[in-house]
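PT: before anyone asks, these are the final sequences, not the draft ones from last week. 492 residues across everything. Please model them as a single complex and drop the result in this thread when it's through.
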Amino acid sequence: MKGLILKDILNLRKQFKTTLLVIGFFAIYAYGTNNPSYMLSMVTLIFAMMPITAMAFDDMSKWDRYALAMPISRKSIVASKYILSICLSLVSIVISFFISYLVILPRTDITGKELLLIAYLVFYTSLVFASIVLVFIYKYGVERARVISLGIFVLPMMVGLGIYKAGFKPPSKEQLMLLLKISPILLVLILLGSALVSYRIYKNKDI
Amino acid sequence: MSDILKIEHLTKYYNDFTLKDIDFNIPKGSIMGLVGENGAGKTTTIKLILNIIKRDKGSIRIFGLDNIENEMEVKERIGVVLDESNFYIDLNPNDISKVMENIYKSWDNNTFFSYLKQFNLPKNKKIRDLSKGMKMKLSIAVALSHKPDLLILDEPTSGLDPIVRNEVLDIFLDFIQDEEKSILFSTHITSDLDKIADYITFIHKGELILTENKDALINDYGIIKCGKEDFNKMDKMDIIGYRKNQFGYEILISNKERAQMKYKGLTLDSVNLEDIMLFYIRGER
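LR: through. Structure below.
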């Protein structure tokens, strides 16, 4: 497992270097606009796309066939991609949170608590995104899953807008607090459920 | 002599292809050549051995253990070389050592780096900058560095120039020197097997044609060259396959000694593996 994750991290080295530049750009943008939320979401989005890139590299080098010839189980291969997604989301959120905290927070009205909440929501969204995309990748392959992943971003926005336009009342503060409290359990369930579905697909795949 | 690999009645069904009832074994200290045309079932056999695909029938025992029940234990002791490098092109041998030491319990970096030295492979050169021959040597170095007892090679010499091919074949011969290890060598380049194989397993359209000691095969098989009249007089049971050309007939037979006695006066030539393969696949019957 460690070897698989290390392999992905080494494969993605070039991407990390480019991402540093992008983070720098968004940090300046956030500083200029006094609004860190855009940086938080963009940086997290870039990191959330990385497991897809890692899987594209695996496809290119026909890695999986080789990996399965080694003492590596199909379960480990699937699990490693989920762990990679979680690690990358964590790294991205920690980086962008600290940039926001140090650079932007002293100049705006946003409190540390609010910033933490934004960071949590972005982290949450990126992992839900990963849970959906990974299943699609295992089912349809990387290229088709990339297109589908764009849809995954647009669809919730459209649904949200629809609900808003239809005149539904927004949930109360208490309801939101409750949702926030149960959200970590929900996230674990989503990740586990997704990993299970991915494994089922991958288990029967002819490689 | 005990077997490192023993395959019995191995069967796999696909919609458009069936690998049927394959039986062969590889004794310790030997090289088994697995031959057959493209699509004959060589890669399917290898995938089944490595449990990359599930068998429908039969059994596969490696080091005396079932390849599915003891999958991880067995794979710790197998080295695999496929027809291309399977690492992402931006990695270098140094990176690969870091990955592999976290995959194989018995991975040994000293062994790996000494192979790199022996094969003249730079530690820090990216795979994208290596020639095809260098990539293959790197794959072999990787496959040997956890000290496997069985090497499984799937078309490892295809696309290599004759010099590198010979170097690679020498590495394989070195590997079996201690008489404890074995190699399964799948290829359609039969001249490589003429050089190094001890046994040959020949698969055609998913079926086992023969599995035999290579020297016995080369000694026993032969080609009779004759005209139409002699051909018509021949016992059809003796004919494995024949080819007709403008000078007459070429006939593959499986018992040279008997043919010599039975068909006195006819020209009887020796064969190589390619001849045997061609007559089975392309020859008329």
